[in-house]
Give the backbone structure.
Amino acid sequence: MFRPHSDSLLLAAQLGREPRLPGATVLDLCTGSGLLAIEAARRGAREVTAIDVSRRAVLATRLNARLNGVSVRALRGDLFTPVAGRRFDLIISNPPYLPSEGAELPDRGAARAWEGGPDGRAFIDRICRQAQAHVTPGGVLLLLQSSLSADLATARELGSRGFEVTVAARHHGRLGARGRARARTLRDRGLLNGEDAEEIVILRARRAAR
């Protein structure tokens, strides 16, 4: 777990514009400090569940929810595993998406919050494959990622699984410190071209009502 960055704040702002939110059942995947789950509860969600693989993140989410006077059910586990068989009106996620320098994902420590595998898609691809089974008909997935981890591929994958996909928000900016530190690796893999910059993209994927 680490402190929320500007990408989480961007997703929180988009969450506030989401028409499906009031009265909805909400799932926050890779919750971190619980910022998005708490924001969903504050803005009128009927029920909020937050999941993270980090024990510290789960404890922080529970504490932060209590401090903010809202109800959030925080669970420890791997993506959808703790909510097997359940569906939600709205799923939000800011998963680890930074392309990793090595092939192996960390199994402990703060780096789990940002390391996304060699192409940055280790978690994104799994969310794309599993989301349909956990979204109610007419429900929405809000997924944040970087252009470094191929947002167009995400849109195509979700589209192939029956979602109507639009770009809800896009922010162009300089690479963060971790991205700049591995810029040479990103260029060698063809993930970064030209300036040390990226786009943070929020995809809104709506499942058909029937």
Observations:
- The longest helix spans residues 55-67.
- The mean pLDDT is 92.
- The longest strand covers residues 135-146.
- The CA atoms of residues 140 and 206 lie 4 Å apart.
